[in-house]
Design goal:
The chain is 48% helix and 15% strand. The chain folds into 5 domains: 4-191, Hypothetical protein af1432 (Orthogonal Bundle), CATH 1.10.3210.10; 197-339, Beta Polymerase, domain 2; 476-542, no CATH class; 554-656, no CATH class; 666-741, Alpha-Beta Plaits (2-Layer Sandwich), CATH 3.30.70.260. Strands 1, 2, 3, 4, 5 and 6 form a 6-stranded mixed β-sheet that branches. The chain has a 4-stranded mixed β-sheet with strand order 13-15-14-16, with no helix packed on it. Strands 19-20-18-21 form a 4-stranded antiparallel β-sheet, covered by helices on one side. The protein is elongated and about 120 Å long. It is built from 30 helices and 21 strands. The protein has 743 residues and is α+β, with helices and mostly antiparallel strands. Bound molecules: manganese (II) ion (MN).
Length: 743
C-alpha cells in the first residue's frame, strides 16, 4: 500500500518546491474523515485516495490536483462538507471535490435517455476544469484495478461504464496509457472467455518467441547507432484487448494476426524522427499501406508520431512508432501532459490543457448540447465521436470540418448543413469526382454536388457514421415515404370511390376519422397507401349504407369435382402429350437460361414465378410481391388480383421481355364445353397436339347428360399461339364453347 510519505516524495522528485503542508493536510483530513471505513478487499479506505493520488504523480501533476485526489471521496462518503473543504483548502479545491462528488452519482449505463442526460452532466462537470477529469480517471483506474474484490453482480456494470464511457473519454483526451489499461481491465470482466483465450495464445506465443523482442530491440538500436542517431527502442507484445479488437474489426483469426509486436523509437527531434524512418525503410522492406505521418497531421487529440510497419529482423512483421520525447509524453498523458509541472528547461510550447485540441473537442461537444434537443441523438452522436479517431477535411472555402474516421462525403455534407446533406447527389474530393461512399482522409478538400430535388436514399443510413447524418437521413426518409404513401393512398381512394359511382375528397374523411381510429386525415390516407387501412373500410365509414361490391371470386375447384377421365369415376387425367422434338427444344432452352424468365421490371435478385393459371407472352401481366416468396406473375384479368386490391404497394409493374414466341413454352389454362359423344376427347387431344401445344393435364370438371366441361392446362409459345389454338378448338363440331381461365 502506498504511504503518505512516499507520495510526498514522488511529487518532490518532479517538483522540488512542492507545498508539502497542503498534501499532508489533505491526507490527515481524508484519513480522519474516512476513519474506520474499509475497501471491499479489507484495506483501510484511505488506501484508495492514496493510490489515486499516486496514479496522478505518474503524470507529474501539481499538488492541488494531488490534494483533490486525496479528498475526492470525502464529501460523498463521509461527514465532510463543501464549506469545510473551502475553509480548509480554499474554494478551488472545494469546487473540484464537489465536481467529483457530482460525477460519482451519475449512472452512465442506465436507460438510454437517462444515460444521455448523465453523460451530458459528466461532460459539463469536466469541462469546467480538466483536473476533475484527471482525478476521475485515476479514481476509475484504481477502482478497476481492484474490481475483483467487488461483488460480481456489481462488476459488470462498472466494467461496462468504463468500456463505454471512461476509456473512450481517456482516449479522446489523448491519454493512451490510461485508455489501454482501462480497456484491458474492462475486457477481463466483460468478456472473460475471450480474455482467457487471447491471453493464453499470447502466452504461448511469447514462450515460443522468447527473447525475440529483446533481440529486435538490440538490432534496431545497433542500426541507429551505426548511423549516428541517438534513439531509445522499446518493444512490447500487444495486449489481449488490442489483439481481440483487431481480430474483430478485421475478422481475422489469431494466426492471421501477424503484427503482435510493436516497437517505439524515441528520438530527440522531429528531424531525427524522419531520419529514423529513412534508416528503417532503407534497411527493411515496408508493408504497404501502413505508413502514417501523424507528425505533419496530428490527430485531433494532439497525438503525434510516425507509424510504419516493416518486415523486420527475424522476418517478423513489426509495427514501429517513431516520436520525440515530448510527443511520447503527450501520447501517454494526453491532456494531462499540458498540465504537467514543468521545470525550467522551457522546452514546452507552454499550452495550457484548456487550450489543447483534445480539450477544445470537449468544449465543442458541449456546445452541441445547447443545439440538440433530443438527448438520444446527442448520446448517439457523442458516443460515436468518443469511439472514433477523427479525420479533418476542408470545404472549398477552407473551412475545417472534423469528422469521425470512416466518415463519407455524405457525413461531411450533413456536418456542414442539414440542407446540404439532404440535397447531396455527388462529390468531388480534391477536385476529382468520387463515389459518395468514399471514406474521407485527413486533409481532403470536399466539394458537395447538390441537386434541387433530392431525397436522401434510405440506404445512406448504412453508409454514414455520424449520428447527425443518420438522424437527418432517417427524418428525410420518413417524410418522403409518408408523402409517397399519402399520394398513393389518395389515388386508391379516388379510384375505389369512382368505381362505386361516388367521389372522394379529403373533407369527407374528417367527420369519420375517429371511427377509423385516426387523428389526422393525412395519417388515414397514408395508411390506405401502406395497405394498413382498406379503401372499402373508408367507403363504409363515409357511406354506411354502401354495399361493397366485391368481385366474386370463383369457387376454386374442389377435389370432389375432379374426375379421372380414364376411370370415368373421376380423378385427374394426365396426358403425356409432349412430342419428342418439342421436349428437346424446351430442355435445351431451359438448360441455357436456367430459371430465368423473360420478365422485365422484377429485378434480377428476386425470384419470379407464375400464378396457378399461368401467363403467356403477349398477356398483360402484373407482379405481386409475396413476402418471403418473391414475385408472382398474373395476367391482368386474373381474379386472384382482387385479393391484393387494397395492397397496392405489393403491385409491381412488370412486362414481358419478348414480344412473341421465344424458345420456351408457357403455361395457360382453358375451359371447354364439349358435347358428350364418342371420340370427343380424342378429337380435342389431337387438335391440341397438331397445333404444337402440349397438354399438361386435362380435367373433366362437370359431366352432365349432354355436355362435359373440360379444363386443360396447356403449354404454348405465346398469346398468338394460344389464340390460334382456341380458334381451332372452337371450330370442332364437338366443342360448343372455349374460354381462357385465369385462375
Ligand atoms: Mn473513489
Amino acid at each position: 500500500m502506498m504511504r503518505q510519505y512516499e507520495l510526498v516524495e514522488r511529487v518532490h522528485q518532479y517538483k522540488p518546491d512542492v507545498n508539502e503542508a497542503l498534501l499532508n493536510k489533505a491526507y490527515v483530513y481524508a484519513m480522519q474523515k474516512h476513519g474506520k471505513q474499509t475497501r471491499a478487499n479489507g484495506d483501510p479506505y484511505i488506501s484508495h485516495p492514496l493510490e489515486v493520488a499516486a496514479i496522478l504523480t505518474e503524470m507529474r501533476l501539481d499538488e492541488a490536483t494531488i490534494a483533490v485526489a486525496l479528498l475526492h471521496d470525502t464529501i460523498e462518503d463521509t461527514t465532510a462538507t463543501r464549506d469545510e473543504i473551502d475553509e480548509l483548502f480554499g474554494e478551488d479545491i472545494g469546487t473540484l471535490v464537489e465536481g467529483l462528488t457530482k460525477i460519482s452519482k451519475l449512472d452512465l449505463v442506465s436507460k438510454r435517455a437517462k444515460q444521455a442526460e448523465n453523460l451530458r452532466k459528466l461532460l459539463l462537470a469536466i469541462s469546467d476544469d480538466v483536473r476533475v477529469l484527471l482525478v476521475k480517471l485515476a479514481d476509475r483506474l484504481h477502482n478497476m484495478r481492484t474490481l475483483s474484490f467487488v461483488p460480481p453482480e456489481k462488476r459488470a456494470r462498472i466494467a461496462e461504464e468504463t468500456m463505454d464511457i471512461y476509456a473512450p473519454l481517456a482516449g479522446r483526451m489523448g491519454m493512451q496509457d490510461m485508455r489501454d489499461e482501462l480497456e484491458e481491465l474492462s475486457f477481463q470482466h466483460l468478456n472473460a472467455d475471450a480474455y482467457e483465450t487471447v491471453t493464453q495464445r499470447l502466452l504461448e506465443l511469447s514462450e515460443k518467441n522468447s527473447g525475440l523482442i529483446r533481440k529486435i530491440e538490440i538490432e534496431l538500436e545497433a542500426l541507429f547507432e551505426e548511423q549516428g542517431l541517438s534513439a531509445t527502442v522499446t518493444g512490447r507484445q500487444k495486449k489481449p484487448y488490442s489483439v481481440f479488437k483487431k481480430m474483430q474489426s478485421k475478422s481475422l483469426s489469431f494466426e492471421q494476426l501477424s503484427d503482435i509486436y510493436g516497437f517505439r523509437i524515441i528520438v530527440n527531434s522531429i528531424d531525427d524522427c524522419y531520419r529514423a524512418l529513412g534508416i528503417v525503410h532503407t534497411r527493411w522492406s515496408v508493408v504497404p499501406g501502413r505508413f502514417k505521418d501523424y507528425i505533419s497531421t496530428p490527430k485531433q487529440n494532439d497525438y503525434r508520431s510516425i507509424h510504419t510497419t516493416i518486415i523486420g529482423p527475424s522476418r517478423q512483421r513489426v509495427e514501429l512508432q517513431i516520436r520525440t520525447v515530448r510527443m511520447h509524453e503527450i501520447a501517454e498523458y494526453g491532456v494531462a501532459a499540458h498540465a504537467v509541472y514543468k521545470d525550467d528547461d522551457g522546452s514546452d510550447s507552454g499550452i495550457l490543457p484548456q487550450d489543447s485540441n483534445a480539450y477544445s473537442w470537449l468544449r465543442r461537444t458541449i456546445e452541441q448540447l445547447s443545439i440538440g434537443d433530443n438527448p438520444e441523438e446527442f448520446l448517439e452522436h457523442t458516443k460515436l465521436e468518443l469511439f472514433h479517431d477523427q479525420v479533418f477535411c476542408f470545404t472549398p472555402k477552407g473551412q475545417l470540418i472534423a469528422l469521425p474516421r470512416g466518415a463519407t462525403p455524405i457525413d461531411f455534407a450533413y456536418a456542414v448543413h442539414t440542407d446540404i446533406g439532404d440535397t447531396c447527389v455527388g462529390t468531388k474530393i480534391n477536385g476529382r469526382i468520387m463515389p459518395l461512399v468514399t471514406q474521407l482522409s485527413n486533409g481532403d478538400e470536399v466539394e458537395i454536388i447538390r441537386s434541387g430535388v433530392q431525397v436522401p436514399p434510405p440506404a445512406w443510413e448504412e453508409i454514414v457514421v455520424t449520428g447527425k447524418a443518420r438522424a437527418a437521413i432517417r427524418r428525410a426518409t420518413r417524410a418522403a415515404v409518408r408523402k409517397q404513401y399519402s399520394g398513393l393512398g389518395y389515388r386508391i381512394l379516388e379510384r375505389s370511390f369512382n368505381r362505386a359511382g361516388k367521389s372522394f375528397s379529403r373533407d369527407q374523411l374528417g367527420p369519420v376519422l375517429h371511427r377509423l381510429g385516426f387523428k389526422e386525415v393525412e395519417d388515414a390516407i397514408a395508411a390506405v397507401g401502406r395497405g394498413e387501412l382498406a379503401s372499402k373500410d373508408v367507403m363504409i365509414a363515409i357511406h354506411p349504407d354502401h354495399q361493397h361490391d366485391r368481385v366474386p371470386v370463383k369457387q376454386s375447384t374442389s377435389d370432389e369435382g375432379w374426375f379421372n377421365l380414364r376411370s370415368a369415376a373421376g380423378m385427374i387425367f394426365r396426358i403425356p402429350g409432349r412430342s419428342k422434338a418439342s421436349k428437346s427444344r424446351r430442355d435445351k432452352k431451359a438448360a441455357n437460361a436456367a430459371d430465368a424468365l423473360p420478365i422485365r421490371g422484377a429485378g434480377s435478385d428476386v425470384s419470379v414465378s407464375f400464378g396457378a393459371a399461368g401467363a403467356v407472352p403477349g398477356d398483360r401481366i402484373i407482379g405481386i410481391m409475396e413476402p418471403g416468396k418473391g414475385i408472382t406473375i398474373y395476367p391482368i384479368q386474373s381474379p386472384m388480383l382482387t385479393k391484393y386490391d387494397d395492397e397496392p404497394d405489393r403491385w409491381i409493374d412488370v412486362r414481358w421481355d419478348m414480344d412473341e414466341a421465344g424458345s420456351k413454352r408457357f403455361h395457360s389454362r382453358i375451359s371447354m364445353n364439349a358435347i358428350n359423344e364418342p371420340g370427343t376427347l380424342a378429337e380435342v387431344a389431337q387438335t391440341i397436339a397438331a397445333s404444337d401445344s402440349n397438354i399438361r393435364t386435362l380435367t373433366m370438371v362437370r359431366v352432365a347428360d349432354d355436355f362435359t366441361e373440360m379444363n386443360v392446362d396447356l403449354e404454348v409459345w405465346d398469346l398468338k399461339h394460344l389464340n390460334k389454338l382456341v380458334t381451332s378448338l372452337k371450330a370442332l363440331s364437338c366443342i360448343s364453347t372455349v374460354a381462357r381461365l385465369y385462375e
